[in-house]
Design goal:
Blueprint (H helix, E strand, L loop, with lengths): L13 H18 L16 H39 L1
Helix pairs in contact: 1-2
């Protein structure tokens, strides 16, 4: 019978909190419509309402990439810690 690794309860670490913040921030920014439902200031003739949302597309991409890289780092650290404890 093959051995299955023990799966413990989820662990909340500061790194995972940062990952969560990176993933939640765009939702909060976009759901809080009152903060950007205006026309001024304009940027190259584009009302604030539109360029703010387009800016968040870029910010969301960057935050998702950061969260992914941090998740990879977290998983690598956990795997190394489990491998080191088993030896």
């Amino acid at each position: 019978m093959p051995e299955t690794p023990e799966v413990g309860p989820p662990v909340v670490t500061p790194l995972r909190v940062v990952i969560g913040i990176c993933l939640v921030a765009p939702f909060v920014a976009m759901l809080w419509v009152g903060s950007y439902a205006k026309t001024d200031p304009t940027f190259i003739g584009i009302p604030f309402f539109y360029w703010y949302q387009m800016l968040w597309v870029l910010i969301s991409t960057a935050l998702t990439m950061i969260a992914y890289k941090l998740w990879q780092h977290d998983q690598r650290s956990r795997r190394d810690a489990q491998g080191g404890a088993a030896k």
